[in-house]
Amino acid sequence: MTDRLPHEKGFHVSWDQLHRDARALAWRLDGHGPDDGGWRMVVAITRGGMAPAMIVSRELDIRTVDTISVKSYNFQTRAEPQIIKAPNMDLVGDGTGVLIIDDLVDTGRTLEVVRATMPKAHVATVYAKPMGREQVETFITEVSQDTWIFFPWDMALQYVEPYRGTE
Ligand SMILES: O=P(O)(O)OC[C@H]1O[C@H](OP(=O)(O)OP(=O)(O)O)[C@H](O)[C@@H]1O
Ligand code: HPA
Ligand SMILES: [Mg+2]
């Protein structure tokens, strides 16, 4: 697709960092729900939104958690987002008091599709790139558009050569 740049930089996020950043997201959202009831439900965008959604719902003591499944990428190549599974719309209603959580926004296409199904929900991501930033009401860290974010569930610890090499 033409809306993607080659990724010149990598931003590697550890579990520890993800936990800190998702907690920071929860604290930023705390007290900013609708006046007449606050946040009543979390909807995680699978799969990347599930770990942050768990941390946010734990911090904010929200027990009603559902998922929306959107598939947008095959590895680093973008395709049109497809909703594979919707949340329980009896619980979601028009989205008032609902927090939609994802790990990041990149082009914003995933969130565009998701927001259309829950127009009054509040969208929050841990990380954001400039192209999709307007699709998100609350986020923690912005990275440049040519950065690929590597999440801890996609990585493993492995040996690296010393900087000066070996004989
Ligand atoms: O703003 P966009 O350009 O739409 O990209 C962002 C979306 O892409 C990734 O999900 P992906 O579709 O790869 O699925 P996954 O969460 O199951 O890994 C990421 O977790 C976001 O949901
Ligand atoms: O930068 C990214 N990292 C991981 N998954 C993604 N999906 C879209 N952009 C990204
Ligand atoms: Mg995702």
UniProtKB/TrEMBL annotation:
Which residues bind GMP per the record?
106-110, 148-149
Q: Which residues does the UniProt record annotate as the domain Phosphoribosyltransferase?
A: 14-159
E.C. code:
2.4.2.22
The source's superkingdom equals: Bacteria
Where xanthine binds, per the record, is at 106, 149
Binding residues for Mg(2+): 103
Membrane protein topology class: Peripheral membrane protein
GO terms in the biological process aspect are: GMP salvage; purine ribonucleoside salvage; XMP salvage
Quaternary assembly: Homotetramer.
| Family classification | Belongs to the purine/pyrimidine phosphoribosyltransferase family. XGPT subfamily.
Protein name per Swiss-Prot or TrEMBL: Xanthine-guanine phosphoribosyltransferase
Q: Which organism is it from?
A: Rhodosalinus sediminis
Organism lineage: Bacteria, Pseudomonadati, Pseudomonadota, Alphaproteobacteria, Rhodobacterales
